[in-house]
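Before any further analysis, backbone shapes were mapped to integers, which produced the following:

***
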Amino acid sequence: MVLKTKQASSSSYAGWVSPNKICSSLINHKNIKFIPKKKAKEISYKNNLWVTSCDDSNKYAASNLILCNSFALNEISLFKDIDLKKNRGQINWLPSKKKYGSKEIISDSGYLIPDVSGFDVFGSTYDRDNENKNLSMTDFDKNLKTYQNFQEIG
């Protein structure tokens, strides 16, 4: 699948995506049936179809299956033996200062994506074997330092 994204200025930005817009367009696509808030108990592949049995006793079959559950994938028996590397990453954003003449992504020891819907997106930290889903102030401070370094360059 090729996704084209456009900003309000109608300029094309290859490589820039809006996760919310992508997810929204996919779950509203005529060829996709979105089934939220179901817990898969068992997944099997039979007769060229993925069959998913859910905790509410319903079964669903499809030629394609997309699992969006991060490192909880091992909770499904079909995938229990996959050696997943659990990494926690954090990005942060602040209201854009619009001081960058360019809308290019800046990358060095971190990255800055300037003015995404009014916000500068910057980061990123990564920690192996960290399953914490909460905002980390330590990671925010590291990312903020990166952001401030990019402001000195810009």
Summary: The CA atoms of residues 136 and 142 lie 10 Å apart. Confidence is low (pLDDT under 50) at residues 1-14.
